[in-house]
Amino acid sequence: MKTFYKISLIILAIFTGKDAFGQTQPKANITGTILDENKKPADYVTVVLFKASDSSVVKTAFTDPTGAFGFTISAKGEYFYKASNMGYKTFKSKILSLTDASQKLDFGSAQLISITQNLKEVTVAVTKPLIERKMDKVVMNVSNSAIMTGSNALEVLQKAPGVSVDQNDNISMQGKQGVLIQLDGKQTYMSSADVANLLRNMQSSEIETIELITNPSSKYDASGNSGIINIKTKKNKNGGTNGSANATLGYGKNFRGNAGLNLNHRTQKVNLFGNYNYGKTERENLITIDRISNGTPDTYFMQTGTSRRKQQNNNFKAGLDYFIDKKNTIGVLVNGYFNHGTEASVNNTIIGPSFQKVDSSLVSNSLQTNKYNNIAYNLNYKSILDTAGSEISADVDYSKYNGNDGSDYENDYLFANGNRIRPISYIRNNTPSKIDIKAFKIDYNVSLSKSIKLEAGVKSSWVKTDNDLQAEEFVNNNWQNDVRRSNQFIYDENVNAAYTNINKQFKNTSIQVGLRVEQTNSKGNLITTNTVVERSYWDFFPTLFVQQTLSKNNQLGLSYSRRIDRPSYDALNPFIYYLDQYTYNKGNPFLNPQYTNNLELSYTFKQKYMLSVGYSRTNDVIIEVLLPDEAQKALYQTNANLAKNISYNANLNIPVQVAKWWSMNNNLNVFYLSFEAPNLAGTALKTGKTSFQFKSQQSFTIANGFTAELNGSYESPLDYGTLSLKARYYIDAGLSKSLFNKKASLKLALSDIFNMSENNLSSAYPGLNYYVHQKNESRIGRISFTYRFGKNEIKPARRRSTGTESEQGRMKN
Description:
Blueprint: H1 2-16, E1 28-35, E2 46-51, E3 56-62, E4 68-73, E5 77-84, E6 91-92, E7 96-98, E8 104-111, E9 131-134, E10 137-141, H2 153-157, E11 163-165, E12 171-173, E13 180-183, E14 186-187, H3 192-201, E15 207-213, E16 228-233, E17 240-251, E18 255-266, E19 270-293, E20 299-323, E21 328-352, E22 360-384, E23 391-415, E24 425-447, E25 452-475, E26 478-481, E27 487-505, E28 509-526, E29 531-551, E30 554-565, H4 569-572, E31 576-580, E32 583-586, E33 594-605, E34 609-629, E35 634-659, E36 662-680, E37 683-702, E38 706-715, E39 718-720, E40 723-725, E41 728-739, E42 744-751, E43 759-763, E44 769-776, E45 780-790, H5 805-808
């Protein structure tokens, strides 16, 4: 920590010069109060201070729960401010003169005028575009989109620019996997498979926006080599008692539906909020695998499998914010889920000396059951330290996860004529798992001057996972323990981190330098074989951001970051899971973390059109691979460290207003990916290919409250590690109608209109010959109804962020 403190001082000295260590300059205080239309304090109103001589922006602040705001400045001159908030007219103050650096200016109180008071004379329509480009991220506005209605979060992500989700629910951004998923700014601490389950169980009605951050600052956890996707859930922004209710029905080949309730009660001192969502889904999946196992002679396998998955999900959130005074707020938050489901599968594998000749076959039936429960507690505190906006916040988190997967398998080996080769084999697995997560973090930010801002913070997390594979086989009419597969794996991890960011604003240039330091201690213990893997290491993650305004319509940006991705918990778990004798999955407890250096240059024109080009290099890249098991003539999936991955990418985002009633957003992402491994299961691997993704979102405004959307996506062929993926594409459509004076909405949506979305892939691994076709239930029609009720005075609720986002992104739901 002493080293970290010294580095912070050096960075501070570079930005602040002599004044950082010298005497403090005298500063004047400018204050005021904002009231709503009922002459009550209006909190979280945006207040912008301007210099009267040239109308340049000096500072920005928010009002506190008493409606008060304040600025601290040192320059003499004349000033005015503008106050704005959703649902109100922008208020412009009178001009006051500051003649002395120690003077105090009080603008007094100002009353906002509600837009709703003038609805008889004017119609106000504020519609956010589906895609917005901001300085450090791309934002997709989900809440008002008809095409997102009734979808789950995983399906919504597929529509985000530069984001891809394959049939196995692997999420990639700009062609690269390793995305860190956050919920409301919090890391999820789950495995990639568990994050996919969580997102599949979250409904679009819960989501406000999705933020795509390709190069995060040092304030964020250093995880995520391809960036961060932050899913922001809805928070009721109205004062008094209010809420909303929604319900969705959907059908493709099977029924699905969900319903939810959101409630909020807000007074001057207390804000109570909560929501509950229930979902029920049923979906089918088809997979075919044709492959050749090398030998003397070669053996040919033709595998066809179908599965039907049924799932019921219950998600909830409840919390309280207590406003101690105008500067201090304390809050508690509880959220979680309890989900359960089944998946029945039938797999038929035909075996022979060629694809035309059959020697034998294997028919495998399986039934899997799952139960996942998670509850997380958060205690948070926030204090505003001065009128310049300096603040300190703290979070303490505890999360407990329990899961139980059960599987029953029946394997029937047959000759070509249908006679049994051997008696039917029965095996079963029971895999209870537990994950405990503890974390705390403290964040501090301060304005050292009108042009220099300092951010700093610390965080520690402790994660313990316990997975117990209880495998049994049916022998002599009795279930007996299968000692070859039964095992227990316990994994402990502690990560301690500290960061600092220094931001300096010049006339046309903004520079931010940051450093994050993380110390990791981990221990994996395979109990049955007493195999222990321990690691302890320190890492430094610098970041640099430069924004240059060339003119009113032209801006340049440059960013650099170093990042880490630790193996997910399920990837480290060495258990073996069989689809059948010839297809299985196993973990790798010897995985190392991967490190990525990212560099990106961006250009923005007219605040709308943006081009970015980037380069990244990842060492020891963690990737899912399909490899041959020559002894068993099987194909297995695992995770491995490849030597390196190099990526070049270019992203172009072009919004177009075709007509007053028709707008579109077009996104083109072109990238080159290469992977190298000198020795992957005894074979050298080297792949590289240029690919692209194109997504277009069309929005249409129709008379009488009707809006419509049409979205399309195309992804060209792609080589990723040992996989060679074919092109993928789909088209979605949606229609929305506002009802009951805009208190309700009715939405219709049809995803994958032409039923084209599917996965087709082959091997990029030398000497391995297979072809996989995978088709999920993707063409689904949905109808959704939402009704909003209660008081309509607009008062934003306090923004919340806990400290366990990163760790929960690595577990099962």
